[in-house]
Design goal:
It is a single chain. This protein has about 500 residues and is α+β, with helices and mostly antiparallel strands. The two termini are about 75 Å apart. Helix 3 packs parallel to helix 5, helix 3 packs antiparallel against helix 6 and helix 4 runs antiparallel to helix 5. A hairpin with a 2-residue loop joins strand 1 and strand 2.
């Protein structure tokens, strides 16, 4: 009875993949020992029961036949298990090759990530150098622009002063001309009176001649004395006329110098306008007044004065005093203008100092803004690298599409990514979650979180989806007499493309 139960157990048992030959050899030895004990018992029974010897022989033959059949079946099973073990070893080698291949792939990916980070750092350094050079050039251009604006302002101011000075001189000359025009009828009246006086003098001279004829010596002495007095008066008047002419020539020279300076400054301003065309609008200056007419008028007036001086010396003496007063007033105005120019220069220096302070403040603000921009760029690059690392670690394809710095699109949703304590945080509207909670990914298992809450059958399906094999496990039935064996056979070939396919897709998308 014990032997039959053992055989039934052997028939109904399923053999595992890790087959142990020692147990089966021990089992065979136990069978042999049981056979020996049976033979001993048979011998005893033969001795005790001679009549039932033939029946026992028949039973023994049957048992031997059954044992031989079972031993044959066990041997076939052992051979099949050896084949299975060999196939499993081959599959193990294939898997090891696959793992080595994936390790090499991961190492290459790490090297490429390092190269990418180095290239990002080099690009950032180049951008920093470019920004610094641009800021330096911009500051230089701003300073040059300010200096040019100051020079233009000064030139404008000088030109306005010169124009005002010329305008004042022209007005004075006009007033003098008007005064002379007003004084012409009076001068004509005086000339008529002078002619009448000459006639009277002629009449008196005729009387004198008649008297001379009477007393010639006394009359000659009187004439000589009068002639000498007239000579002295004439010399004095000629000296005064020369002084007035010299003053007139000095005024004309000053006018010409002012004209030349005005022309030179206009040419300089035109050159500055060409240089400042990139920084400021064209500066329109009023053309200087034409002084040709004034010079002609002045010459005519001087000629008239020369003509009238011979006739009216007293009028010229009366006109000399206002001319001297005008010259003195002009000298005083020049002194006042020099004082105002010195005050304006001091004010310009103060304004230049304030402008330099403002420029320094602007440069500091620009430097701070550039540093803030660089920090934001570095933060954005760190966010991108952390996101790539997260996707590679969790074998997930990157679901985010970059729109702006720190802003991404996820399933037609605008999401902002931030770094806090070296961990990515997703911000959608008011809600802020970590990237694991946002994507429903478990970091420990590196699987979607909905698989943890599934049933056992669903877990089996999900786990099968993460295995490297593509074909399902095939089962074969082995019919051997009374017992049916189900042997699981795995496929010998593997497809390398499906191994860690999300990572490879992500890698292809990166490069």
């Amino acid at each position: 009875m014990d032997i039959s139960t053992n055989t039934d157990k052997i028939c109904t048992a399923y053999f595992k993949v890790n087959f142990n030959t020692q147990q089966y050899w021990e089992y065979m030895q136990t069978l042999k020992s049981s056979l020996a004990s049976l033979e001993i018992s048979l011998n005893h029974e033969k001795e005790s029961h001679v009549n039932s010897y033939e029946i026992l022989i028949e039973k023994e033959k049957k048992l031997q036949n059954e044992y031989e059949k079972k031993i044959n079946s066990l041997l076939t099973k052992i051979e099949r298990f050896k084949q299975l073990n060999h196939s499993i070893l081959q599959e193990k080698k294939c898997i090891e090759e696959q793992v080595n291949h994936e390790r090499d792939y991961v190492k290459n990916l790490e090297n490429k990530l390092k190269e990418a980070t180095l290239s990002y750092s080099e690009a950032l350094q180049k951008a920093e150098d470019r920004d610094s050079s641009f800021v330096c050039r911009l500051s230089e251009l701003v300073r040059e622009n300010s200096e040019l604006n100051q020079t233009v302002h000064k030139m404008k101011f000088d030109i306005e002063e010169k124009n005002n000075y010329l305008y004042i001189i022209e007005e004075q000359l006009k007033r003098k001309n008007e005064c002379l025009c007003q004084e012409l009828p009076a001068m004509n009246k005086k000339a008529d009176e002078f002619y009448t006086i000459i006639r009277k003098s002629q009449e008196s001279s005729q009387k004198m001649i008649t008297d001379l004829c009477k007393n010639p010596e006394q009359n000659i002495e009187n004439i000589n004395s009068a002639f000498n007095s007239f000579k002295e008066e004439n010399s004095n008047l000629t000296k005064e006329l020369q002084m007035l002419l010299e003053k007139n020539t000095a005024l004309a020279i000053e006018k010409e110098t002012l004209k030349n300076e005005n022309l030179e400054k206009n040419s300089r301003i035109k050159e500055l306008e060409t240089e400042i065309s990139l920084y400021a609008s064209h500066i329109s200056f009023d053309q200087p007044t034409n002084l040709a007419n004034t010079s002609k008028i002045f010459q005519e007036s001087s000629e008239n004065l020369e003509i009238e001086t011979s006739l009216n010396i007293n009028c010229l003496i009366s006109l000399q005093n206002p001319l001297e007063e005008l010259i003195k007033s002009q000298e005083q105005k020049l002194i006042i203008q020099e004082s105002t120019i010195s005050e304006l220069q001091e004010k310009i220096k103060c304004l230049e100092q304030e402008n330099s302070k403002h420029l320094n403040e602007i440069c500091q603000i620009k430097y701070k803004t550039i540093q803030d921009i660089k920090l934001e760029r570095i933060k954005v690059d760190e966010v991108d690298l952390q996101l790539q690392k997260f996707c590679c670690d969790n074998f997930i394809e990157n679901p985010f599409v970059k729109m702006l710095s720190g802003v991404y699109m996820y399933n037609k949703k605008q999401v902002s990514l931030l770094l806090k304590n070296n961990s990515l945080i997703c911000k959608y509207g008011v809600v802020t979650n970590t990237i694991e909670e946002f994507l429903h990914v478990d970091v420990k298992t590196k699987k979607p979180l909905h698989a943890a809450n599934a049933t056992n059958s669903e877990k089996g399906k999900n786990i099968g989806s993460y295995l490297p094999t593509t074909s399902p496990i095939s089962k074969k039935k082995v019919n051997h007499n009374e017992n049916d064996l189900t042997i699981e056979e795995k496929p010998k070939t593997y497809t390398k493309e499906k191994l860690f396919s999300p990572v490879r897709k992500h890698y292809k998308r990166m490069h």
